[in-house]
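TICKET #2291
ISSUE: user wants both folds in one file
ATTACHMENT 1:
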Amino acid sequence: MQRIVLGRVKPTLSLPQALDKIRAGTRAVVVGDGHGSRVVTAGDIFEAMNEALDAGKDPKSVEIGEVKPTLPRVAVEAPPVTTTDRFGPPGSRPSLTFPEEDRFRSLLMAKDGGKEPRYLVEEIGPEGAVIVTSSEAFAGHLAKSLTICKCAGEPVHRFEPDQVRVPGVCNRPHGRPVTCSQAGIV
């Protein structure tokens, strides 16, 4: 099993605020605070921001809860949480025990045939959540530092590098030049 710690946000946060909650060394956030929590990538946020801009809306007026994530969430019941937690005192945070991890891994693999990255959100607190997945590639994708590509001109569209269809050119109709840099670097 692979585990990745992501920032967690409430569904009412604006798109730019949610983008700011992406933890260093990752490229997604967990939206929600319970059973319906889901992973929303920076690419999902950028797409929603670009759509808002093109519709003449301020991305600050769009809530992250309105974003439809592109990543599939596991559709199996989470394994039961035991009262003893190998990561701290009982009740400090839910955790899967080793036999439950084996059960979960087999459920994930049976559900998706190992082809699609499925995940489970393991809650750890109001500011973060652990994503549990059987896919090393998916875990590696989430655990990469965020790179933001911006186009020159108004409106300024944003993309992740793998979203840019033609290298160095904005996907939107104005086709302006695009430059990419790591998040946090001006």
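ATTACHMENT 2:
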Amino acid sequence: MLSSFLAFGLVGAATAQNYWFSFGDSYTQTGFLTNETLPVPGNPFGNPVYPGYTATGGANWLDFDTTTYNNSLVLTYNYAYGGATIDSGLVAPFEPTVLSVTDQVNQFLDTAASKPAETPWTSANSLFSIWIGINDLGNSYYLSDNRTSFDTTLLNAEFALIQKLYDVGARNFLFLNVPPTDRSPLMLSQDAQAQAMLKANILDFNSQSAEFTKNFQASNSGVTTFLWDANAAFTTILDDPTAYGFVDAVSYGTNVGDFWINTLHTTSPANVYWAEGVADVLSGSIW
């Protein structure tokens, strides 16, 4: 775990700052709007008021990493949107108003990508993260007999977006893979066949994603990639929850010791572990 070198609200305006541009779904969302208050020292998320509109019952992993587990002043532009898929044309979200990662990247391209005076990021002082796939797989694992081919289609779409980010100057990328949502209370209410199908789909998607990441880095000069293995982190705790302060692997709600806040999302105490894991991955960089 990285030390809490700088804490939320304690940094002077003259401190060198780094920029984090985040894309994803409800596991990451805080409710940021591009046309409202932007991140500044002392208010590193801009809007809404910290910790934002999360799906954790409190601060989420990105909240913790921005405000506590870092080695620098981080200003975070969090485009993540609850329910997001990579592209709604490939996998429909639960509502048509949900902003896919395609929409989120377009928001960035239409605003901060041009490095305006209020967001003077550079290739060196910026990190771009993406945690996506949970809804893509959860909403489609049962629809196709050829999951490997469809996973490739999804990842082609995702990495086309990542290429667009590279083309405007992004060089540092953090990828977070799909956790074992087959073990979520939502899926435990389904039959064993459904759980096995989703598990196999997740493993294939994550495996292909790792290869796509390697190929992307090899094909684009100056790229640095980081990977936090969310699947392994979740599995470690779910296999021995009491060792990490949770009552069991299946309870959900707002009781002390619950791992899940509802049938699909983890509690804020669980997100502390995710934040620490990401911080470890980024250790040694400027973050």
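RESOLUTION: both attachments delivered.
EXTRA DETAIL ON ATTACHMENT 2: The chain has a mean pLDDT of 94.
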